[in-house]
Amino acid sequence: MGEGTFGRVLECMDVESHEIVAIKVVRSTEKYREDAMIEIGHLQTIGRNDKSGSRGCVQMRRWFDYRNHICIVFEKLGPSLYDFLQNNGFQPFSIECVRDFGRQLLESLAYMHELGLIHTDLKPENILLVSSEFNQTVGSKNTSEHCNMKKVPKSNKIKLIDFGSTTYDKECSFSVVSTRHYRAPEVILGSGWSYPCDIWSVACILVELCSGKVLFQTHENLEHLAMMERVFGPIPSYLVRRLKGKGLKYFKHERRLVWPDRYTSRESIRAVDRMPILSDLLENYADSSSRSLLDLLERMFSFDPVHRITAKEALQHSFFKQVDH
């Protein structure tokens, strides 16, 4: 079904229950075995408090050790949101889908955060549709006179996967977490992270589902921070004042970002200059939906993690109260 640095995922049949399952077969090295046992611990915590599986986190059926490979048995789910976007030519999801996905994501996060767990690696690849079924409809026009066909999921039900990087809040440190494009500013600046880093990642994901494009397409810290400032405005000076260690090198004495610096390439400057403001990313949608979604995203994209909206608070936002017609 897929593979990664950890090992591979196989589609199998449980000969006792006749259920089709997904088995994550982990590499036999000591490090990957240790990581797998930590993930199993988190999955057991999540499952113990969610017997019905209604909290939107993938359910572990069991685990076993086979020839020094830790094997974790999961319920089988559908494609990831990334795969679905890719197979759709990166055409954006409808506002109804985005609202549905956003609500479920935040419900799962609110549940995890209540348990004291921070996912730390939220991205479209780690969000799976429960069903693989879809309908075909007419999508956006391409460069020729033809219209693209667009796939629409038959069910918007999703589940979170990959708890290998999940950590307890009390274990939080100043380490680097999250996949680059979904990484919160406090992680880049080394100012300490907690639950709010998950909220920033969800906001990046929602923008990607709305636009079909990764918001921060970058691989370098200074460029990433410059892109953030281009989209959201300057990082508040009081946050810069509090920085210690590695985060300080990105700022001048006036507490402004050192951008561009003498090593910055023209391509990098152009990439930052091309960044749209947040409202332009939602131009696909009707006014009322786009206004409330923009307000929600602005609260999720607060540079200050203390002021960033929580998962529980976000679920009460007007964007999730609107009725789709």
UniProtKB/TrEMBL annotation:
CDD domains assigned to the protein according to its UniProt record, in alphabetical order: PKc_CLK
Family matches, as Gene3D superfamilies: Phosphorylase Kinase, domain 1, Transferase(Phosphotransferase) domain 1
Record bears the keyword Transmembrane: no
Superkingdom in the source lineage: Eukaryota
Keywords: ATP-binding, Kinase, Nucleotide-binding, Serine/threonine-protein kinase, Transferase
Transmembrane segments: none
UniProt-listed PROSITE patterns: PROTEIN_KINASE_DOM, PROTEIN_KINASE_ST
Keyword Thylakoid carried by entry: no
One Pfam family it belongs to: Pkinase
GO CC terms, sorted: nucleus
Gene Ontology terms for molecular function: ATP binding; protein serine/threonine kinase activity
Domain Protein kinase: from-to ranges: 1-320
InterPro entries linked: CLK_kinases, Kinase-like_dom_sf, Prot_kinase_dom, Ser/Thr_kinase_AS
PANTHER family: SERINE/THREONINE-PROTEIN KINASE DOA-RELATED, SERINE_THREONINE-PROTEIN KINASE DOA
Full protein name: Protein kinase domain-containing protein
The species this protein was found in: Ceratopteris richardii (Triangle waterfern)
